[in-house]
Amino acid sequence: KAGVTQTPRYLIKTRGQQVTLSCSPISGHRSVSWYQQTPGQGLQFLFEYFSETQRNKGNFPGRFSGRQFSNSRSEMNVSTLELGDSALYLCASSYSLGVDNSPLHFGNGTRLTVT
Amino acid sequence: AQSVSQHNHHVILSEAASLELGCNYSYGGTVNLFWYVQYPGQHLQLLLKYFSGDPLVKGIKGFEAEFIKSKFSFNLRKPSVQWSDTAEYFCAVIPLTGRRALTFGSGTRLQVQP
Fold it and tell me: For A31, which of A74, A75, A109, B53 is 20 to 30 Å away at the CA?
């Protein structure tokens, strides 16, 4: 069974630009969560999608948005990029909603660098 | 909002030494607790979890953790570490009610020297 796939692996963008990251969950998984990992803040929850609906949201500005498609694939978009958005963005999938109902499976992440 | 503290940022041990990594959380209600591990070059994976019952839980690769409710702690232990345990370890909590977001600690980098 293929794992969680995130594309691209690396991305370099300029301040003010926007970026879209993609996540393909494990086959059969319907929940996708996104996390931002930085050396200073650690792992922070962005949002969780289940059945194409955002079910939970972290404390990030509206510049961070996401969506989930009918095949459970998810995209995350960051608009008007700031230097502080440089981070590793991790996607995790699970069979059902809620990390306690089924374990999270993480991807290897997309490393975004904003210059 | 809940928060998770991991006081040890970097731990260096020799093989066969005992390990204890601290994790404290701040939240007024009931939480479920997790330890995740990230081996070099690999993705994050679940090490163990505690939901209820026996406060001493066992995970993969000989790891265990003890939930002490009165201390809001969920420390990770292993009696004898191996070089292959070199990794970064993250404690995480999720409340049972309210905004059900998984909150991670800042992580502890464990380096085991052969």
Answer: B53
